[in-house]
């Protein structure tokens, strides 16, 4: 999906919500456990309930990998079920030496090889240019590079003060600057945690045109209002992810209705913020 097509979906649905499919068999409502594939059945109902309010879905690969072959099958079925107009993100946080990254890229992007046809994959920047480029080599696909993550551990490395050509910088700022040599805003997005919303205005100075994937609203307590105020650009430029707050809004038989209510609530708030740019 192109950047413009994604923006058009955002305008159409008046939403920049990404629903995170962090589907944990231990959290699935008990009545679904008799289904042939409980993980897929849960996802199917969540997708049906939230698709009018979401422009993107982000299965977190760990939740599927942890179940072995069965998990990969549930993921395949889920991917086939997600409506075609929705942007899909494999949240895999990969990155390795070039020839290995090439295989990771094939895993998520090459339908003929793996059966998967995600629009985007999350990638860790730590190993540098040659670890990211194999993902960027796929046309019409996206790399979402971890820039400033939502967790407390982001303080360990990402905020470190460094010096680049005599200029003082933070490590995450250099990730944003350097990676722009590798791909454009048509193929690269960045992860910025919602819990780091106070840094968004400054991040926008470095990457004014790129889309940002912003996880951390809902269960992690980030503010959608602040993220939108400081992070939105003229073409929205935001995909805000919420996983647990939507998919586990209820652990009972009404889980899909409650997920719909939560997704709708977020979408209605987003519609308000979008009115500033349309
Ligand atoms: O890359 C991510 O999606 C990600 C980056 C980050 O900095 N923080 C973060 O929470 N995530 C992911 O976003 C989702 C957040 O889930 P909830 O906290 O339940 O909304 C999880 O799948 C995380 O792995």
UniProtKB/TrEMBL annotation:
EC number annotated for this UniProt entry: 4.1.1.23
UniProt xrefs under SMART domains: OMPdecase
UniProt-listed SUPFAM superfamilies: Ribulose-phoshate binding barrel
Pathway: Pyrimidine metabolism; UMP biosynthesis via de novo pathway; UMP from orotate: step 2/2
UniProt-listed Pfam families: OMPdecase
BP GO annotations: 'de novo' pyrimidine nucleobase biosynthetic process; 'de novo' UMP biosynthetic process
Protein name (record): Orotidine 5'-phosphate decarboxylase
